[in-house]
Amino acid sequence: MNSAFRLLMIGAMYENGGNTTHRFLDGHPQMYVYPFESQIGTSLVHDYISSMFPLKYRWPTFALHASPYQDYKAIIDEEGKIRSRTPNVSKFRHEPFEMIDDERCTIYERIIGEIGRSRPNNVEAFFRATFEAWKDYNRTGKEVVYVGYSPIIGVDSDKILTDMPEAHVLHIVRNPWSAYADTKKRAVPLSLEHYTLGWAMNQYYALLFQEKFPDRMHVIRIEDVLADPQKTLGALCGKLGLEAADSLAYPSWNAKRLEEVYPWGMIRKATPDANKATAEELTVAERDEIRARTTTYIEHFGYSGFL
Q: Taking residues 9-34, what's their average pLDDT?
């Protein structure tokens, strides 16, 4: 295992601002920021919460007998592979993206040949191969940290931080009212009961692992990012030994400023006012039911007076 590999993995419950935070970090000159959700899970993930969250969002499990080629193919990476292999059906087809997936696979195999096959090395090779294969990536030459984002991967923070001694996990939390209101806008939304259970589970694991890994497990409210992204994310960068770059002030993709985060996430306007207005779309009955189901974490994160 190459213990010098530095990964910042972002996690968040759906519509909690993980994609938004990912985009605020995108232009940082010292970061290789993955272009889409880095869905590094595999179909071999099986545990007591596998039925709760999609396997593509989990920390991967690899077959003992597999080859590096088979490992690469096992990584789901739905958004990246679709944009590369069938760009016309990708929701990101409007942005230029020069990366050939088969070439990335070849680079991945070469890297594994150099560092050896293991779960952390497989993840390292996946990220390194992506940026080597991405031809029109806006490089600065100062990059030292790789940044990925996968919804709900925070539930696996203990595995990430144990596998990779230099890794950090950033968990993003958003008030559950705004989060659920945005979730309702999806084509096939989760029920309120299903959504709030997943939301609460994400906060449970984030706080649990923050206790176990206090120096490398970070928990930030999206409300604080929206209010002052440079201050909030600059403080995080300081903990990583990185500069508080001016680019933290706005969301971007491949260092190009975005007017809205969508389609990287359902949050279109990354502002406190838009966040509050989203929560107010809910009925009184929905607001009360969400409060009843998430009250412990509402109080912990200071959301009691939000709505």
A: 97
